[in-house]
């Protein structure tokens, strides 16, 4: 039996909707399991990505940990795919780019409804924030972009089938849209 | 009970005597979080914390947007329970256009309920089969390669495939009502944007009888797993807590709309039929320094005593009955199991989640026979208001959305208390219980550490939802550019003033 294709997935600053849409391939998961093995993914317990054939990145980049995880994926994945609106252009979380971080802080601490013990968490365990939410291609080289909010299950299936078979993925026009 | 493990003795930390062990990221949950332990020389756990490490800032950045965008925007909080956020926001903007829940057209009310039953059904199936079942079927300390849904599909193909199809059905209910499985549009201010067509209704009716049977099988599976591992399942990560949930006026389990009920550890009712619009008086949220997630508590009891749990365990514990027959029979069996008024077992979250899965399947079955679903009387109108509050029982528990708008219909203020945030103290208590009772003093191997995640997973935490908020950021912010170069530093001085640049 040929070695299985290794796939890693992660969610950065996203809502997990792209991972959910991937699971929306439903029964086709069984077919996929015949040819694919998952490395690091929210669906497995592997914490760090090892050498992989395909990496799928959901979500934009909003903090130093996201940068670190993204670079780890790039270093380990032969093909890296930006999945969904947040990875491709920052998506809805990038709306925070219209505000200064200070304004977010001040808003929350001075005016938050029902906030007790107001303070700004300050702990080495918390990653540092980027000034803006950024698309993944600004941090590392991306090989393919899978559009949608989220991309539909059929887009996932079409893309993954092509990549697994070593073809360039192409999408029919009706599958290329934001919503 | 285990709160002494929240913070280690500062003298030990300062002396550099403690070693750090991290589970990072916590896996098979939705979103980002990590657990850190501090251990002394004898591997005794001195500190255990669940940190939520991301923030997104919804409460700030939706300000300035017109209110009617809210149900579509805020469902991007979460790709797992987008419908719950969509509907909580819709219920809030109903109020903004002067429509109270009782005045919604029956067709709109029933379509929203159908949509939400689909949501809870798919989320509960996802959580049990795709995320948690490897722990329950292979064991908490099984090898890492087994602990995923693909291994479940390989070793238990029938169970795995039923899980996939249960979730698929819930997603199809959502797609028929809102046009898309994830981030569809259905609810608008005062009602719904379209009725169900007869074809859509008939499409869903084809499979529902089978879905009820599979939901019953899932419940039997989880009941068997739980009861065949007693007393371990009753004790693992278990903490005695208060419970908060919505109930119907007659005390029945309720997922879409009701009053707030709180019961204490002994099952005494502390609050009943409480108006959710008064939630700011009921609940406050404490900020702590080491996590981005706040700690809600009941104002009247204070932060030491006032924390509570939400979600399936809270709902099934709190309600007087369930208004669908098979789920009600399961509830009676569940309550009989503990011999106490309240079931406190943390792993019983899985059991109650499957009771609710069955309740959703039964409820969808009866709703699909309701002719109102095909009615085009879908939108009510009223007098404009400037404040709206929406509540719903999301899959993970009670969810509050609260908005204020100005005279130009622009959002000026927002507050969200998401379900997972309400379970923050409880999840930390459960983590500390496992750390103290099962891990302390042992050589910590990777499989052993999975026990911490099993405890967290029982709550089905949605860390995507929980990282929505602003207002929980580090004291010193370093702003780095895309290359990781420091571009600015923001420091909060003791005066409260923010300063750019160096210290």
Report how far the terminal alpha carbons of chain A are from each other.
40 Å
Q: Mind describing the biggest β-sheet of chain A?
A: 5 strands, parallel
> What's the oligomerization state?
heterodimer
Assign an overall shape of chain B.
globular
Largest interface: A-B, 76 and 91 residues
Structural class of chain A: alpha/beta
**What's the count of strands of chain A?**
8
Strand content range of chain B: 15-25%
What is the overall pLDDT average of chain A?
Answer: 89
Query: Span between N and C termini of chain B?
Result: 40 Å
Please list the strands of the largest sheet of chain A in the order they lie side by side: 2-1-3-5-8
Enumerate the spans of chain A where pLDDT stays under 50 for 5 or more consecutive residues.
Answer: none
If strands are numbered along the chain, what order do they take across the biggest sheet of chain B?
A: 8-7-6-11
């Amino acid at each position: 039996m040929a070695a299985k294709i290794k796939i890693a997935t992660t969610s950065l600053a996203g809502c997990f909707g792209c991972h959910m849409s991937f699971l929306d391939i439903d029964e086709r998961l069984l077919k996929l399991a015949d040819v694919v093995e998952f490395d690091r993914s929210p669906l497995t317990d592997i914490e760090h990505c090892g050498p992989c054939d395909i990496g799928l990145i959901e979500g934009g980049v909003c903090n130093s940990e996201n940068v670190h995880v993204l670079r780890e994926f790039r270093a380990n994945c032969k093909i890296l795919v930006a999945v969904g609106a947040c990875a491709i252009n920052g998506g809805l979380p990038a709306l925070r780019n219209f505000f200064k971080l200070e304004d977010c802080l001040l808003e929350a601490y001075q005016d938050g409804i029902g906030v007790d013990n107001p303070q700004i968490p300050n702990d080495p365990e918390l990653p540092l924030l980027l000034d803006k939410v950024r698309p993944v291609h600004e941090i590392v080289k991306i090989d393919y972009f899978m559009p949608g909010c989220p991309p539909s299950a059929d887009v996932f299936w079409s893309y993954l089938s092509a990549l697994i078979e070593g073809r360039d993925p192409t999408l029919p026009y009706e599958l290329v849209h934001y919503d | 009970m285990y709160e002494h493990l929240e913070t280690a003795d500062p003298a030990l930390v300062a002396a550099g005597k403690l070693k750090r062990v991290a589970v990072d990221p916590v896996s098979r949950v939705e979103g980002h979080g990590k657990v850190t332990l501090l251990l002394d020389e004898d591997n005794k756990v001195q500190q255990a914390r669940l940190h939520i490490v991301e923030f997104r800032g919804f409460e700030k950045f939706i300000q300035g947007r017109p209110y009617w965008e809210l149900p579509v925007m805020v469902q991007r909080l979460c790709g797992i329970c987008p419908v719950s956020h969509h509907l909580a926001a819709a219920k809030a903007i109903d109020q903004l256009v002067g429509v109270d829940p009782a005045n919604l057209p029956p067709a709109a009310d029933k379509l929203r309920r159908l949509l939400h039953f689909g949501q809870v059904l798919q989320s509960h199936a996802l959580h049990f089969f795709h995320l948690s079942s490897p722990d329950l079927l292979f064991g908490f300390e099984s090898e890492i390669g087994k602990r995923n849904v693909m291994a479940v599909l390989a070793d238990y193909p029938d169970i795995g495939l039923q899980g996939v199809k249960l979730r698929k059905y819930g997603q199809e209910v959502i797609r028929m009502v809102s046009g898309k499985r994830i981030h569809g549009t259905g609810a608008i201010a005062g009602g719904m944007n379209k009725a169900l067509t007869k074809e859509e209704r008939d499409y869903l009716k084809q499979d529902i009888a089978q879905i009820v049977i599979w939901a019953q099988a899932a419940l039997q599976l989880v009941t068997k797993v739980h009861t065949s591992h007693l007393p371990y399942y009753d004790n693992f990560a278990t903490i005695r807590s208060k419970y908060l949930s919505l109930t119907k006026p007659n005390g029945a389990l309720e997922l879409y709309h009701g009053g707030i009920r709180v019961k204490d550890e002994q099952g005494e009712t502390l609050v009943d039929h409480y108006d959710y619009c008064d939630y700011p008086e009921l609940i406050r949220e404490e900020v702590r320094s080491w996590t981005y997630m706040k700690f809600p508590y009941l104002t009247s009891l204070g932060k030491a005593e006032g924390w509570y749990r939400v979600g399936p365990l809270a709902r099934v514990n709190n309600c007087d009955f369930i208004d669908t027959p098979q789920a009600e029979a399961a509830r009676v069996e569940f309550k009989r199991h503990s011999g106490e008024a309240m079931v406190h077992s943390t792993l019983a979250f899985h059991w109650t989640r499957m009771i609710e899965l069955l309740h959703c399947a039964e409820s969808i079955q009866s709703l699909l026979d309701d002719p109102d679903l095909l009615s085009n009387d879908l939108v009510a109108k009223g007098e404009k208001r400037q404040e709206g509050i929406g509540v719903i029982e999301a899959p993970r528990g009670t969810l509050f959305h609260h908005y204020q708008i100005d005279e130009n219909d622009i959002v000026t203020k927002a507050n969200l208390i998401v379900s997972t945030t309400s379970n923050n103290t409880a999840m930390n208590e459960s983590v500390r219980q496992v750390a103290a009772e099962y891990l302390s003093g042992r050589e910590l191997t990777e499989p052993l550490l999975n026990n911490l995640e099993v405890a967290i997973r029982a709550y089905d935490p949605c860390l995507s939802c929980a990282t929505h908020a602003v207002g929980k950021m580090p004291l010193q912010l370093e702003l780095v550019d895309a290359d990781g170069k420091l571009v600015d530093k923001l420091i909060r001085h003791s005066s409260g003033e923010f300063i750019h640049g160096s210290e």
